[in-house]
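Working notes for the structural subgroup meeting. M.R. asked for a predicted model of this chain before we commit to crystallization trials. I am recording the input and output together here so anyone reviewing the notebook later can reproduce the run.

Input as submitted:
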Amino acid sequence: MSTLTTPLAEAASSNAALRALLHGLPGVDRVGADQRAAMLGTRSIKTTAKARAIDLAISMVDLTTLEGADTRGKVRAMCAKAVRPDPGDPSVPKVAAVCVYPDLVEQAVQALGRSGVRVASVATAFPSGRSSLGVKVEDTAFAVAAGAHEIDMVIDRGAFLSGDYRKVYEEIAAVKAACARDGEGEDAHLKVILETGELATYDNVRRASWLAMLAGADFIKTSTGKVSPAATLPVTLVMLEAVRDFRAGTGRMVGVKPAGGIRTTKDAIKYLVLVNETAGPDWLDPAWFRLGASSLVNDLLMQRQKMATGRYAGPDYFTLD
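Returned structure, recorded in token form:
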């Protein structure tokens, strides 16, 4: 384990210490990051490797419904698709998780049963994050008590952008504590949403990534899907570099989840190449990399069927999300 461990622990002692550490991180070469992401995005894979990549991408998807009009029936239908993305082909892998609002967690848990598909829930006044810490903790505790395996929280971007890093750190740490089950089963994993489209610079993305990991994040996630731009290859590159360097400095591995705007098989494969070439093959696993892209699944299924049969199914062949 690196000698970074002690300074990292000390960084949480005050806002000034956090600022010193975060602003002491190497700056991001924006042009270099854009060029490297674009270059990796041109990589192509064929035949057997592509077939494996498609199945891996399906297994990494978090199917999501986060609308005010969500119903129990819609959640049940989504859960059925999560377990059997193509009812006519049992060889298609199940997805990683479904993501719903806290009041629908219990319904999702019941619908998924022992399938192995995890239930994630947004919390902490999603998507704005503008509420009191007490409300955020209660929101989290409610979802965990209902059976959520994962919590997707949003950081207070206003606090972060104004330099109040200590407030952001303390909120993440408090929500992480609320993910505990007090010895009654596995604690819920915490995915921290940075909302990178509002952070303005790659340097801020790197700093927010490190801040979330220091506070206990199990995953760092680009976006809520409610703000544009959402996930991009260069931003995900910066986050993958952050988790790689954090692991080298602390020995702790943290996952990454780009979310929003990933719609095609070609897009998904670009992200898998980016993961392999930036963080390394250890992250090529649903336990450490996710795709927040419900609409992506049908395109993956169509490409999968094309490789198997030589022809595309119509767009209405698969269920809508």
